[in-house]
Design a protein that fits this description.
InterPro entries: AAA+_ATPase, ABC2_TM, ABC_transporter-like_ATP-bd, ABC_transporter-like_CS, ABCG_dom, ABCG_transporters, P-loop_NTPase. By secondary structure, the chain is an alpha/beta fold. The strands form three sheets. Strands 5-6-7-3-8-9 form a six-stranded mixed sheet, with helices on both faces. Strands 2-1-4 form a three-stranded antiparallel sheet. The structure holds adenosine-5'-triphosphate.
């Protein structure tokens, strides 16, 4: 009681809170071992789980109600600070929680309501005192998301192999060896492990992104196998941000909303949803900035990642998968993203994310954890109990370490600063050289084998049994997941028109690129000067004009084939991402992509011909000019169609380039033959050469 009173007095003023936080930091720094044990390190497994239970109780207490007003995250931070008690003061986690709460991105999926007393208490603080959240912005609005069907994800003994074809032989490579686990709505499951341990493969399998070859084991969603109907309930954020570089943040999210949201919503409502997501993810300050790419400077890495997340949460998915959402980001931005995920989960969604090397603050935010090593399961369970488990099998850190770092070291077989069980030490002494590394430590392979075996014998079976338990969900809701019809967000025509508009916006810079325009005008002018007023009736003059026509045919055969051939291979990643999310019909995409470039692709030849035709002094009547133009158009359409077809068939840049070269050579030959034909057909009878469709056919 006394403790509580003193805690209350401590939290009255802001400066007191700072002192408190500093005290916790000092305490944590002074005794690393003790603080580490409190945060869940080897020495104090109990305290680890206590701590995590405490923090989750706090989160649970904070969730109901969920009213979001101005400066939600400020309130959250104040509220979190106010809830510090003396027990927490001595713990490193108190510092972690206080700071994470004060930095945290408030997300209205969860909402956050301060008890009335807290609100009253918070008045003395002025908003000016709180530094503005520069990266994430302030979050003021609450997304009105419809309730989604909760999805319980279970996976048992998931195995996955690939066949590697060599020159002389084929080998099977095991990527995943019997991975079992589960995650419920409201939870965040983290898949952790060293590089190449199989995190992305497992995530892709769980997200239904890897279908061939069929994996072993079973993956169920509310006890049902994967079906295409789930696509609209699953959000999948890939490791690389697959976004159009020339669209702005707002355009990206608006087009996603227009294509993905159900027909029941009006266009205006869909646009509003996009804006809401922008505010929710703190992207309002960069909403009109281009995404950017290799050649265009755009939004920052953290903002790009948030746009990718926004692209998926816009559909209000029941299940959200993320592949390394924090890689390449600083720890504060990473923390904000994980906070966002946490908030999404609290709104009843199921979240699965891979993570490379989380800070201890991040690590504490995960509900469940899967630790993988070389494709095998080293741990599955509550993240807060992972340290308890490893200490129970005799592995504890010898120095203060971030729990994630400790586990990754273990998964890599690096036990330099880790105490290993006597059983493993004995093994090293008995078997000697092959199993022993420098300094008497066991070799990584031995450590890996020990960890896999330990998990198999101590935990695996009981976890598998737990997965047999029925999920606490109504049969009606369960059946709803399977009975729903696959529905497109919009009809074919709307999909077509949205894709055309999006294509025009994305490529507006290409169309009006001065480089391209200058290239065409400069070529036309040079040709015009070389063939300046070349008209005449002599055979030499006609041969001369034949050369010009050959050049025009090759130029307008070459140009479109090369641009068209790369169209589909270049958008391959985007196409597969969007098709995997059932955003539109394949036919709508192909027709839109094929036709959207055409008007602007036909504009340049008009400019080109207007310059060359009159400079070279070809036949000057309108009929001849327009027929020549029509012939060039037909040439372009044919070349473009061919280029698109090749690109679409191959979907591979390297092969497409080879085929493009072959096609261009063919065009050159065809152009040569065409001019030769013209020449011999007209002979010396015509005074001027003109390409006309009649001659062409
Ligand atoms: N189709 C494939 N063909 C050959 N090897 C593959 C294939 N898919 C995955 N692998 C291999 O499987 C292993 C696991 O790959 P995965 O991408 O899942 O690892 P990861 O844990 O996500 O790695 P990272 O953290 O570096 O992204 C790697 O060694 C990878 O080379």
């Amino acid at each position: 009681m006394e403790k509580q009173n003193s805690a209350t007095s401590i939290i009255r003023t802001k400066s007191d809170q700072l002192v408190e936080t500093m005290a916790a930091a000092l305490a944590a720094m002074k005794s690393p071992m003790s603080s580490s044990s409190e945060a869940g390190f080897g020495g104090g497994p109990e305290s680890s789980s206590n701590l995590s239970r405490k923090s989750s109780r706090r989160l649970a207490a904070a969730s109901p109600g969920r009213s979001i007003g101005r400066n939600t995250h400020i309130r959250k931070s104040r509220s979190a600070q106010m809830k510090l008690d003396l027990d927490d003061l001595s713990s490193g986690a108190a510092l972690s929680r206080a700071s994470s709460a004060s930095l945290g991105l408030s997300f209205s999926f969860t909402g956050f309501t301060m008890p009335p007393d807290d609100i009253a208490d918070s008045r003395p603080f002025s908003d000016d005192e709180i530094p503005e959240d520069l990266e994430a912005g302030m979050h003021k609005k609450k997304i009105q998301t419809e309730p989604t069907i909760p999805i319980y994800l279970k996976f048992t003994s998931v195995t996955y192999k690939v066949v590697l074809k060599g020159v002389t032989s084929t080998v099977e490579k095991d990527i995943l060896n019997g991975i079992t686990g589960s995650v419920d709505p409201g939870e965040v499951l983290a898949l952790m492990g060293p590089s190449g341990s199989g995190k992305t493969t497992l995530l892709s399998l769980l997200g239904g992104r890897v279908r061939v070859p069929a994996p072993g084991g079973s993956v169920t969603y509310n006890d049902q196998p994967y079906s295409k109907l789930l696509k609209s309930r699953i959000g999948f954020v890939t490791q690389d941000d697959v976004l159009f570089p020339h669209l702005t943040v707002k355009e990206t999210l608006t087009y996603a909303a227009l294509l993905r949201l159900p027909r029941t919503l009006t266009k205006e409502e869909k646009k509003k949803r996009a804006l809401d997501v922008i505010y929710e993810l703190g992207l309002e300050r960069c909403q009109d900035t281009m995404i950017g790419g290799s050649f265009v400077r755009g939004v920052s890495g953290g903002e790009k990642k948030r746009v990718s997340i926004g692209n998926e949460i816009i559909i209000n998915p029941s299940l959200l998968f993320l592949d390394e959402p924090t890689s390449g980001l600083d720890s504060t931005t990473a923390l904000r993203i994980i906070d966002t995920l946490h908030d999404i989960a609290e709104a009843g969604k199921t979240v699965v994310t891979t993570i490379h090397q989380p800070s201890s603050r991040l690590f504490l935010k995960f509900n469940k954890l899967i630790l993988l090593g070389k494709g095998s399961l080293l741990y599955f369970g509550q993240a807060s109990e992972a340290m308890v488990y490893f200490s129970s099998i005799g592995c504890t850190p010898l120095i203060a370490m971030n729990p994630a770092e400790f586990m990754l070291d273990l998964a890599n077989g690096n036990v330099n600063d880790i105490s290993v069980p006597s059983e493993l030490e004995d093994k090293v002494q008995m078997e000697n050289s092959e199993t022993e590394m420098k300094g008497g430590k066991p070799a990584p392979a031995v450590v890996h084998e020990y960890l896999v075996e330990a998990y198999e014998t101590r935990v695996s079976e009981s976890e598998k049994k737990k997965l047999m338990d029925p999920i606490p969900i109504d049969e009606k809701i369960k059946s709803k997941l399977c009975s729903a019809k696959r529905e497109w967000g919009t009809n074919w025509c709307d999909q077509y028109s949205i894709l055309v508009r999006r294509g025009l916006r994305e490529r507006r810079h290409d169309y009006f690129s001065w480089l391209r325009i200058t290239q065409v005008i400069a070529t036309a002018t040079i040709l015009g000067l070389l063939w300046w007023q070349s008209g005449g009736n002599s055979s030499t003059e006609l041969k001369d004009q034949a050369g010009l026509l050959f050049f025009i045919a090759v130029f307008w055969g070459f140009f479109p084939v090369f641009t068209a051939i790369f169209t589909f291979p270049q958008e391959r990643a985007m196409l597969s991402k969007e098709r995997a999310a059932d955003m539109y019909r394949l036919s709508a995409y192909f027709v839109a992509r094929t036709t959207s470039d055409l008007p602007l692709d036909l504009l340049l030849p008009v400019v080109f011909l207007a310059v060359v035709y009159f400079m070279a002094g070809l036949r000057t009547d309108a009929g001849s000019f327009f027929l020549t133009m029509l012939t060039v158009f037909l040439c372009i359409i044919a070349a473009q169609g061919l280029g698109l077809a090749i690109g679409a068939t191959l979907m591979d840049l390297k092969r497409a380039t080879t085929l493009a070269s072959v096609t261009v050579m063919t065009f050159m030959l065809a152009g040569g033959y065409f001019v030769k034909f013209q020449y011999s057909y007209h002979g010396f009878a015509t005074s001027r050469l003109t390409i006309t469709p009649t001659n062409f056919f």
